[in-house]
Amino acid sequence: MHTENGRMLIVAEHGANWEKWVDRALNSALSVEVIVRHANERFVNFALRGRVLADGTRLDGDEAIRTWILRSAGMAIVPFGAFGVVEDTGWFRLSVGAVSLAQIAAVLPRLRAALQAS
Length: 118
Description:
Helix content: 40-55%
Strand content: 5-15%
Number of domains: 1
Largest sheet: 4 strands, antiparallel
CATH superfamily: Aspartate Aminotransferase, domain 1
CATH architecture: Alpha-Beta Complex
CATH topology: Aspartate Aminotransferase, domain 1
Order of helices and strands: HHEEHEEH
Strand order of the largest sheet: 1-2-4-3
Structural class: alpha+beta
Number of helices: 4
Shape: globular
Number of strands: 4
């Protein structure tokens, strides 16, 4: 069964408590400023702008942060610029409706390790 953003897939697999599980997993795994919920999406500000990594890479904007998280943790995030926001905001969308809870559980330790190493 397929519906918009895969929501029915994750609900069918994990029942009505999937949103609480995702929120607990994100909150416990990530050291982020804020997580905002909307349907099967989570909006996150990682508070990484301006950080200089051990290799000298400077996370000077949303694209640098997006690229670094993709390379370091294997996790795709969508900066608000993709939705027409002109300036770098530091906010990103995480879509959790099209993946399984097992996939989410597998990526969070990689993301946590990358954030802790930064």
